[in-house]
Design brief:
Blueprint (H helix, E strand, L loop, with lengths): L1 H10 L7 E4 H15 L5 E5 L9 E4 L1 H17 L7 E9 L5 E9 L6 H6 L13 H4 L4 H11 L3 E6 L5 E8 L12
Parallel strand pairs: 2-4
Antiparallel strand pairs: 1-3, 4-5, 5-7, 6-7
Helix pairs in contact: 1-6, 2-3, 3-6
Catalytic activity: ATP + protein L-histidine = ADP + protein N-phospho-L-histidine
Enzyme class: transferase
Pfam family, one: HATPase_c
Amino acid sequence: MEDLLTLARLDERRVAANRPVDLLHLAYDAASDAHATAPDRSVVVRGLHDSTPEEAWVHGDESKLRQVVANLLTNALRYTPAGSPLELAVGLEPAVDGEFTAVLQVRDHGPGIHGQDAERVFERFYRADSSRTRETGGTGLGLSIVAAVIDQHDGSVKLTETEGGGATFTVRIPHTKPVDSTPDDA
């Protein structure tokens, strides 16, 4: 029921309390949460191209962006074999307009999502695994919530195959520089 209310609010496109948010900070928090709930899993935060992770600031609603990362990580934990590693990759990529895009990826090394399932995974109530019920697998709304939140942030979310097998969810949101809290010396 809570997921339906969340989607209804997102459909209304209510103005959120937006402020500078660092996706890297959210990734570290999510990895810490995952270690607590799934201590058998390796969950690491890295840079986009196996480099050092870098700050990726966006202007957004922190609580909704946290929900995005939590939904993506929860799905990765739920739908991959026990013990399989997970990665959160964060960084910046050049955008067409000379600016940058903040990028956060959740990569798993499970069976992946293929064919029609990959095409429909962001639809409301769609479950890639039809054997799962609400009691064992959720409402089928988690990824549609992700898509709606990212859309509200003028971003995009895409599913691709992880190199070597698995699913990678890539979130892209326009980068913004954090507000400098120090006064000018002018």
